[in-house]
Automatic annotation (TrEMBL), chain A:
UniProt entry keywords in alphabetical sequence: Oxidoreductase, Thiamine pyrophosphate
Location of the Transketolase-like pyrimidine-binding domain: 11-186
Keyword Oxidoreductase: yes
Protein name per its UniProtKB record: Alpha-ketoacid dehydrogenase subunit beta
Cofactor needs: thiamine diphosphate
Protein's UniProt keywords contain Oxidoreductase: yes
A Pfam family the protein falls into: Transket_pyr
Entry-linked SUPFAM superfamilies: Thiamin diphosphate-binding fold (THDP-binding), TK C-terminal domain-like
InterPro entries recorded: THDP-binding (IPR029061), Transketo_C/PFOR_II (IPR009014), Transketolase-like_Pyr-bd (IPR005475), Transketolase_C (IPR033248)
Organism: Gillisia lutea
CDD domains xref list: TPP_PYR_E1-PDHc-beta_like (cd07036)
UniProtKB/TrEMBL annotation, chain B:
Every Dehydrogenase E1 component domain range: 43-321
Cofactor(s) named in the record: thiamine diphosphate
Gene3D superfamilies: 3.40.50.970
Protein name: Thiamine pyrophosphate-dependent dehydrogenase E1 component subunit alpha
Transmembrane segments: none
Lineage: Bacteria, Pseudomonadati, Bacteroidota, Flavobacteriia, Flavobacteriales
One Pfam family in the UniProt entry: E1_dh
Keyword line: Oxidoreductase, Thiamine pyrophosphate
Family annotation (PANTHER family): PYRUVATE DEHYDROGENASE E1 COMPONENT SUBUNIT ALPHA (PTHR11516:SF60), PYRUVATE DEHYDROGENASE E1 COMPONENT, ALPHA SUBUNIT BACTERIAL AND ORGANELLAR (PTHR11516)
Length: 341, 329
């Protein structure tokens, strides 16, 4: 008999997504995927590669650039009992279709008193760091997290990507599943270790409301999402050499947010740094700081520190982009300031 | 309307050739620092790069009829229009290199070029430029000028809500507005036939009660003629038009596109009909120019473009903290 271990393979973020979609589509005929360039191209960020060959154009549907049309159509199709998965390439492009998302997808289940279910998954790529400038580099985590009625997840590691995508597909609520371009393990982008990781071949789910402690520590809690989790882990390694033992939490789910895991960690460490690739104001760093200020204040030994992209559009030129997106050094310096007087 | 001005054709040849040579230099420069392993974020010109090689007639054929005071909005594939419109070439090159001397001090990049001196802008969101040009046309009308506004889009954008809303506005308000649709057969990997319910977008003009023109086979002369009529109508207050030109995309959607979705024979067959060569042959055949005159013109272009690149390469990068400037005045 094969052991479970034999069935764990190392996959990239993109391969983990494809495996999740494949296994779920195989299991449930009511699932179909639509979006721009998801067919033969296989998704600009490799989210559907090979699925067109396997499932054909009826279930892996290329769409025109008619976002209000096809994302709005997901509402009707879902209300009719299908389970649409809709990709819109970059999160930045959702501006053209926000009405369908925040007035309809997010509200219809509630406005109908729970009588209309919309099991829709919106897939989209987020993130900067490769000079794609102001309209192609945002994460917009908080813009979506702000809307009642929409689950927002942003996993980091391949194992979570697969398990959370399957959970999102099976969830009867609308979910926006954000994948980070740099974590897809694409051959034409920066190559980073975090984009490759062990993924069980079997089907499994990971809850959509649980953060994950990816490194335990006792001196300071660092909370990150996606690339900021990766950077927080690197920072934690450097901090170890300075004798600082940081705990790192990968938020994974932006909405609902897992307060308990964060509060429990702060109870232990007494210090909190939140790092976000999204904009500073009204963002994840503010939300988490507020949670800890109101529910964990008495555990704090130092003021909470927020590190985020300042309130400027992402500039094109590399030197300026590097300046605005938080990096390992920003985290290390912050923690040093907090702990070494 | 069929009168062809020789000076106009030479102007078009210059604009088309300049764009081609500029982009050939970009194509090479883009790969610097990306070999042997392609990494989109590496090199002197990082990020996405959408080139317009093959599509030059769409830009030159209409912009030849425009003045500095007419507005042009373009797309993520903007260089041919920017160059024809007379965007400062040095600053444009510097912007693409992310330099402080660029049009936007390095904040915009190749998809976001703004030159208010010649009323040119473009952007990375498909369809978004159409209403901007409609608004400029509205302003022209309110100010009672004869200036017009032209929006350029790819055929993929013709299926966006912005397209239909904007055209209805332009028609309803009878604005001096022209929409040029560059049908290069592809919206990234999705073929025109797979995205659009009709064969060409000039047909859509009838649903707004405006003029529709179709230019086949990337023909620069035909584009010139049709545009001349549409521009004259717009200036006279006779209302908006759609011009669709069937054009060629010689390169991938962006540089680095594996292009597995298109037939290997497509590009060579398009390149065999290179519109720049066709225009040159026409100029020579009709005795409108001479080999020497064209050679001189080409040498001027090479010098101008080369010096723009030299300027861009020699220029300084912005300081990192300049990222924080320009959010608000
Ligand atoms: C609103 C929006 N949706 C999707 C995209 C992604 N995208 C960029 S270019 C493009 C294809 C555009 O095709 P077309 O309009 O024909 O122009 P072409 O690229 O052929 O010049 C797509 C889908 C985008 N930039 N904006």
């Amino acid at each position: 008999m094969e052991t479970t271990k034999d069935k764990i393979k190392k996959l990239t973020g993109s391969k983990a997504m494809i495996q999740a979609l494949d296994q779920e589509m195989d299991r449930d005929d009511s699932i179909f995927v639509m979006g721009e360039d998801v067919g033969k191209y296989g998704g600009i960020f490799g989210s559907t590669t090979g699925l067109f060959d396997k499932y054909g154009g009826e279930r892996i549907m290329d769409t025109p650039i008619s976002e209000t049309g096809f994302i709005g159509a997901a509402v009707g199709a879902a209300a009719e009992g299908l389970r649409p998965i809709v990709e819109l390439m970059f999160v930045d492009f959702h501006g053209v279709v926000m009405d369908q998302i925040y007035n309809h997808i997010a509200k219809i289940p509630y406005m109908s008193g729970g009588n209309v279910k919309l099991p829709i998954v919106l897939l989209t790529a987020v993130g900067g760091g490769y000079s794609d400038a102001a309209q192609h580099s945002q994460t917009l985590y908080a813009s979506f997290g702000h809307l009642p009625g929409l689950k927002v997840v942003a996993p980091t590691f391949p194992n979570d990507i697969k398990g959370m995508l399957i959970a999102a597909i099976r969830d009867d609520n609308p979910v926006i599943f954000m994948f980070h371009k740099t974590l897809q393990g694409l051959g034409w982008m920066d190559q980073i270790d975090a984009s490759l990781g062990p993924v069980p071949e079997e089907t499994y789910t990971i809850p959509l409301n649980k953060a994950n402690v990816v490194k335990t520590g006792k001196d300071v809690t660092i909370v990150g999402v996606q690339m900021m989790t990766v950077k927080a882990l690197e920072a934690a390694k450097e901090l170890t050499d300075l004798g600082i033992d940081a705990e790192v939490i990968d938020l994974r789910s932006i909405k609902p947010i897992d307060k308990e895991t964060i509060l429990k960690s702060v109870e232990k460490t007494g210090r909190l740094v939140v790092v976000d690739e999204d904009y500073y104001s009204y963002g994840i760093t503010a939300e988490i700081s507020a949670i800890v200020a109101s529910e964990g204040f008495h555990h704090l030994k130092a003021p909470v520190v927020r590190i985020a992209t300042p309130d400027v559009p992402i500039p094109y030129s590399r030197v300026m982009e590097k300046f605005v997106i938080p990096d390992v050094k920003d985290i290390v310096d912050t923690v040093k300031n907090m702990l070494i007087v | 309307m069929d009168h062809i001005d020789i000076k106009d054709l030479l102007w078009m040849y210059r604009a088309m050739k300049k764009s081609r040579y500029f982009e050939e230099r970009i194509e090479k420069a883009y790969l610097e620092g990306k070999q042997p392993i392609f990494n989109i974020g590496a090199g002197a010109i990082p990020g996405e790069m959408h080139l317009s090689n093959g599509q030059e007639p769409s830009a030159a054929g209409i912009i030849v009829h425009l003045t500095n005071n007419d507005t042009v909005t373009a797309t993520h594939r903007p260089h041919h229009e920017a160059i024809a419109k007379g965007v400062d070439l040095k600053k444009m090159a510097a912007e693409i290199y992310g330099k402080k001397t660029g049009l936007s001090k390095g904040k915009g990049g190749h998809m976001h070029l703004f030159d208010p001196n010649v009323k040119f802008s473009c952007g990375g969101i498909v369809g978004a430029g159409i209403p901007h040009a409609v608004g400029a046309a509205l302003a022209n009308k309110k100010k009672e000028t004869t200036d017009i506004a032209v929006a350029f889009i790819g055929e993929g954008a013709a299926n966006s809500g912005a397209f239909h809303e904007s055209l209805n506005l332009a028609a309803l308000w009878n604005l001096p507005f022209i929409l040029v649709v560059e049908d290069n057969s592809w919206g990234i990997s999705v073929a025109q036939k797979a995205s659009t319910s009709i064969p060409s977008n000039d047909l859509r003009a009838s649903s707004y009660g405006i003029k529709g023109y179709l230019v086949n086979d990337n023909d620069p002369i035909e584009m010139y003629k049709v545009s001349k009529e549409a521009v004259a109508r717009a200036r006279k207050g006779k209302g908006p038009s759609i011009i669709e030109i069937k054009t060629y995309r010689f390169l991938g959607h962006f540089q680095g596109d594996p292009e597995l979705y298109r037939n290997k024979e497509e590009v060579p067959s398009l390149r065999a009909k290179d519109p720049i060569n066709r225009l040159k042959e026409y100029l020579l055949k009709e005795d409108l120019s001479t080999t020497e005159e064209i050679k001189t013109l080409e040498n001027e272009i090479y010098t101008e473009v080369d010096s723009a690149f030299e300027f861009a390469i020699q220029s300084e990068y912005p300081k990192p903290e300049e990222a924080l400037e320009d959010v608000f005045y």
